[in-house]
Design a protein that fits this description.
By secondary structure, the protein is mostly helical. The protein has 8 helices and no strands. The chain is elongated.
């Protein structure tokens, strides 16, 4: 088979490669993939695509050993890639979690509240952290923050309004 590309179009080249080599290549790749036909077909397609992209690699030598080598390398690369990333799970795994777990619900809520607090202006966030999370009085928070007590009161008021709005935007209206 002449795969040099001289006098043939790209379409003719890929059709000729497919007609002559796809069957044996698929059988070989099926053995490498443990009978997974879909993966094998993908590998064959990618192998023939690489042959089409690099016709210079096919001229002057037997084509089939080159194709089989490319296919084997693609199978090995795919196997390594699957091992390198976490195993994929379907949506059924999400439904396996019990929905009546209060600790899970509390954790999710705390993440949402932390995200909403992070969206507040720094002066509002610091006032809420001092008064609500650290349990300080207005006078104590004013001392720690270095601002007047009246400012702590007004910032707390506006910070709570901003926090409520941020939570409502996240679908967590108090």
């Amino acid at each position: 088979m002449d795969v040099s590309g001289a006098g043939t179009s790209d379409e003719q080249l890929i059709r000729a490669l497919y007609a002559e080599h796809a069957g044996p290549l698929l059988g070989y790749v099926l053995r490498l993939t443990g009978g997974d036909r879909q993966r094998a077909e993908d590998i064959v397609q990618e192998t023939l695509l690489r042959a089409w992209r690099h016709p210079e690699a096919l001229s002057g030598r037997p084509i089939r050993p080159w194709l089989f080598t490319v296919a084997r390398n693609l199978v090995v690369d795919a196997h390594r890639a699957r091992r390198a990333r976490p195993r994929e799970v379907g949506e059924a795994a999400l439904f396996a979690l019990p929905s009546d777990r209060p600790d899970l619900d509390r954790a999710l809520e705390s993440w949402e509240v932390a995200d909403a607090l992070g969206s507040l202006r720094p002066e509002h966030r610091s006032v809420l952290l001092e008064t609500y999370y650290r349990g300080r009085s207005v006078a104590e928070a004013a001392t720690v923050l270095g601002i007047p007590a009246g400012t702590v009161k007004s910032r707390t008021y506006y910070a709570l309004r901003a926090l409520r709005l941020a939570l409502e935007e996240r679908g967590m209206a108090p």
